[in-house]
Specification:
- The protein is of the alpha+beta class.
- The chain has a single domain, classed as Jelly Rolls (Sandwich), CATH 2.60.120.330.
- The protein is built from seven helices and 15 strands.
- α1 crosses α4 and α2 crosses α4.
- Pfam families: 2OG-FeII_Oxy, DIOX_N.
- One of its GO terms (molecular function) is 2-oxoglutarate-dependent dioxygenase activity.
Length: 337
């Protein structure tokens, strides 16, 4: 049985004929209690919501997408020169990732590029998974590319931290709970540029832009272009699964919760199953995955358990958990040699 509760090899029908109605969280609002209430309800209902007025300028968002398109338009051999390494930095080719191996015949019909928190070679922290130096395209090929991505990474991290404070309050914790050094003080924060090639998805034949999955960590900030493709399944335990499209909203982030927050909250907040279907049009998105530090132990929060509701999951170490999840879904690097 896989993580979606399906027997191995069993392909279940899925419906996708409606658009999801998601809440909007305004990060510029001075009414923090209203933001907490809206976020808490969104986390209980679907685990997905929009974030607006987040402080990242439209000009920077547009530049990130423009620079992303410049990179993905390079010849394949140029992109392969900065193929992802064991630290998950660099380029991921089409079909490198397979997020739903039970139902996919190949891998995801998307290519990507990972950028993480810069940790210099020689720093003891660089010995840990997901920490280390980034890989970058040659500056003479893509001038300003590195600087644009570094700035966006910094600003997206601050948005993520601001959201984490609201999430903490929504879980009846101190607002600074996730700011602790072992959590978001030294985060694993991966920016991933994504390009979905213009291939038509065929769910009944196992062809997807991105297979059905839940994200692994604390939360994800997703910026998209205007091409529809993202779908969510609010209840991953019902069959047949009902899929809803998430309409793009210019300038807004689509935010979803990851598996670590589901474990922290003892399933009070949910990590929601989602996928991407290609409709024959090229599609770009920019995902920012925010996770706690490598050494953080994720275990049920005291505000989320009781005698009647004991912890549902054993404690896990963040770095080890992420390493396993990435290993399960990405191609072995030796296959490219």
């Amino acid at each position: 049985m896989n993580s979606n509760g399906e027997e191995a090899g069993q392909k279940l029908p899925a419906l996708a004929n409606i658009s999801a109605a998601l809440s909007y969280i305004d990060l510029s609002s001075s009414d923090i209690q209203n933001s907490v209430s809206l976020l808490r309800q969104a986390c209980l209902d679907s685990g997905f919501f929009y974030v607006v007025n987040h402080g990242i300028s439209q000009e920077l968002m547009d530049e990130v997408f423009a620079q992303s398109k410049r990179f993905f338009s390079l010849p394949h051999k140029e992109k392969m020169k900065i193929l992802r390494n064991e630290k998950h930095r660099g380029y991921t080719p089409v079909l490198d990732e397979c997020l739903d191996p039970v139902n996919q015949i190949h891998g995801d019909y998307k290519e990507g590029f990972y950028i993480g928190v810069e940790v210099p070679q020689g720093d003891p922290e660089a010995e840990k998974p997901f920490y280390g130096p980034n890989l970058w395209p040659m500056a003479d090929i893509l001038p300003g590319w590195k600087e644009t991505m570094e700035r966006y990474h910094r600003e997206a991290l601050e948005v993520g931290r601001a959201l984490a404070r609201i999430i903490a309050l929504a879980l009846n914790l101190d607002g600074s709970f996730f700011d602790q050094p072992e959590m978001l003080g030294k985060p694993i924060a991966n920016l991933r540029l994504l390009r979905y090639e213009g291939k038509m998805s065929e769910p009944t034949n196992g062809i997807y832009g991105a297979g059905a999955h839940t994200d692994y960590g604390l939360l994800t900030l997703l910026a998209t272009d205007d091409v529809v493709g993202l779908q969510i399944c609010k209840d991953k335990h019902t069959h047949p699964q009902i899929w809803e499209y998430v309409p793009p909203v210019k300038g807004a982030f689509v935010v979803n919760l990851g598996d670590m927050l589901e474990r922290w909250s003892n399933c009070i907040f949910r990590s929601t199953l989602h996928r991407v279907l290609g409709n024959g049009r090229e599609r770009y998105s920019v995902a920012f995955f925010l996770e706690p530090s490598h050494d953080c132990v994720v275990e049920c929060l005291p505000t989320c358990q009781s005698d009647d509701n004991p912890p549902k999951f054993p404690p896990i170490q963040c770095g080890a958990y992420l390493s396993q999840r990435y290993s399960d879904t990405h191609a072995d690097l030796s296959s490219y040699k």
